[in-house]
Design brief:
about 230 residues, alpha/beta, Rossmann fold, 6-stranded mixed beta sheet, 4-stranded antiparallel beta sheet, 10 strands, about 25% strand, binds adenosine-5'-triphosphate, binds magnesium ion
């Protein structure tokens, strides 16, 4: 697989020659690759190789110093903060290793949270959040605060929250990293089923060889560079 998608025009993610530095640290250097719609791609590499930084750039949390990033046919590098926030809200979802749930909100409110800036009536907002909690096997946990949930339950809430805007791309940074192996497997099965059954493009940072085996292909990162594509 070279850096070009077979059909670049309909790619989910096209990254061309992006670089990012923080002072003298250069975590992303001249990286190019492409992910097609509906693919499940893993990003692997040793600690400190730049994976999280690269993910943050592609997902529009940070800007690259140079290069181009196209998500669903739209160049995001030139967007301002408001446009970027809107893009993130509309088209992408995020699942992080350490959950990032709001501790003072219930599971249901956390899931519905990304919908608050969107003009959706409260009833519909809550129905959508409840239906996602149901899908995640958390029907009875809607009123629980994150602190009252297990790690696996918390991660399922973050997945429900990531899906509430019906994103076409899901970015995950070691989504099973903080879970025991059985719970991690359940979460992974859930993510894979979203990919297979609903065609959600999955882009996942992982250290886990078992996960890379399940993905369509892996990108290897070393010292800020994507060294090869499998
Ligand atoms: N905001 C920042 N300011 C300064 N340096 C940073 C910043 N973010 C990341 N770095 C540095 O960039 C390098 C890559 O970090 P990054 O978090 O992307 O690695 P990683 O591959 O995700 O590692 P891990 O597997 O441990 O999560 C590290 O040396 C890190 O210290
Ligand atoms: Mg990381």
């Amino acid at each position: 697989m070279n850096e070009k998608c077979k059909k670049e025009a309909v790619s989910a993610i096209t990254v061309k020659k992006i670089s990012k530095h923080f002072g003298s640290v250069k975590p992303v250097q001249n990286v190019s690759f492409c992910v097609e719609q509906g693919e499940f791609v893993t990003l692997v590499g040793s600690s400190g190789s730049g994976k999280t930084t690269l993910l943050g750039l592609i997902a529009g949390f940070e800007k690259p110093d140079t290069g181009s990033i196209v998500l669903q046919g739209r160049e995001i590098v030139a967007l301002d903060e408001d446009q970027l926030a809107l893009m993130r809200r509309k088209s992408v979802g995020f699942v992080f290793q350490d959950f990032h749930l709001i501790p003072t909100l219930s599971a249901l409110e956390n899931v519905a949270f990304p919908l608050y800036p969107v003009k959706i009536p409260e009833k519909e907002r809550n129905e959508r959040a409840q239906s996602l909690l149901d899908q995640m096997g958390l029907s009875g946990r809607a009123d629980h605060l994150p602190a009252k949930l297990s790690g696996g339950e918390r991660q399922r809430v973050t997945i429900a929250r990531a899906l509430v805007n019906k994103p076409s791309i899901l970015f995950c940074d070691e989504p099973t990293g903080n879970l025991d192996s059985t719970t991690g497997k359940e979460i992974l099965d859930l993510l894979v089923s979203l990919n297979v059954e609903q065609g959600v493009t999955l882009f996942m940072v992982t250290h886990d060889r078992e996960i890379t085996k399940l993905s369509n292909r892996s990108l290897y990162m070393q010292d800020g560079e994507v060294t090869y594509h499998e």
